[in-house]
Amino acid sequence: MNRTKLTFYQSVRFTVFCSIVGLLAACGPIRPPKDAYQDVHTLLKQMDQKRGPVESFRIAGSIDHVQEQRVRGKAFIFSKLPGNLRIDILSPFGNTLSVLTADSDKFGLSDYKVGRFFTGKPIPCNVARFVGVALPPSDVIAILIGKVPLIEGTKELKWHPDGYYVVTITKGNMVQTLHIGADKKTLPLQMAQIKENNKIVFNVSFNMWRSVGDARVPYEIRIEMPRDKAELFVQYDADGVEVNVDLPDDAWDQTVPAGARLEQLVCD
């Protein structure tokens, strides 16, 4: 009787063991699609095409910016491509914290927390005062709709066994890496990273891609800048994205808030 039970339990354990081994084997490397891309230039071109035409957008969502201080709030973002941008940040209680405006000629930043209004040129160092990312407004706009500026350099394409394409662009001591999803209908950009001298300068990840009209837009964007100890997380509301909308011409203008101190920004 005991021997029968022992044999039965051993049999069950053996079956479970075999099942686990089978599952582990099934979770091995993912093979590339039969029609996988072989040419890096074709992949990048088609990925860009599948983002769809976006000439302007209006977005509502939330922003969480961590650097020397942490800023959380409601974000309202407006843009007319390629370079007109407006970002309004409100506190959880509905008070305006800051407003950024930029067009081809001027940059404005109202910081209501300290009662100051900054004005200057729409150049990366001025934009960094607001979003923590030293990029021109046109590049910030591109990131907000799931694109990244590409460096000029030697391009290589490989397949990653976890199931996505890896594009590597090398120029001197700078390396840009892109992870692109395998779905040929959408080719979602999952991650983009820039390293300089083998140290991460900039890392951005895109998640929750959705269709908005004829365009594809990521509803979650996380930007990390380890050297600056800064991180920016943007999440769009479920119904908060509109593309190719009409925006008023004065959306990119700001007046100095009453009582605010005006300061001219000058930086390299």
Q: Using the alpha-carbon principal axes, give the shape.
A: globular
User: From the helix content, strand content and strand pairing, which structural class follows?
Assistant: alpha+beta
Strand order of the largest sheet: 7-8-9-10-11-12-13-1-2-3-4-5-6-14
Q: Which parts are unreliable, with pLDDT below 50 for 5 consecutive residues or more? A: 1-6, 14-26
CATH topology: outer membrane lipoprotein receptor (LolB), chain A
Please, what is the average pLDDT?
Answer: 86
Work out the strand percent. Answer: 35-45%
What is the gyration radius calculated from CA atoms?
A: 24 Å
Fourth-tier CATH superfamily name: Lipoprotein localisation LolA/LolB/LppX
Order of helices and strands: HHEEEEEEHHEEEEEEEE
Main β-sheet: number of strands, strand sense, barrel status?
14 strands, mixed
Number of helices: 4
User: CATH class, anyone?
Assistant: Mainly Beta
Number of domains: 1
Helix content: 10-25%
How would you describe this structure to a colleague?
With 268 residues, the protein is α+β, with helices and mostly antiparallel strands. It has one domain: Lipoprotein localisation LolA/LolB/LppX (outer membrane lipoprotein receptor (LolB), chain A). It contains 4 helices and 14 strands. A 14-stranded mixed sheet has the order 7-8-9-10-11-12-13-1-2-3-4-5-6-14, covered by helices on one side. The longest helix is centred in the N-terminal third of the chain and has 25 residues, at 2-26. The model is unreliable at 1-6 and 14-26 (pLDDT under 50).
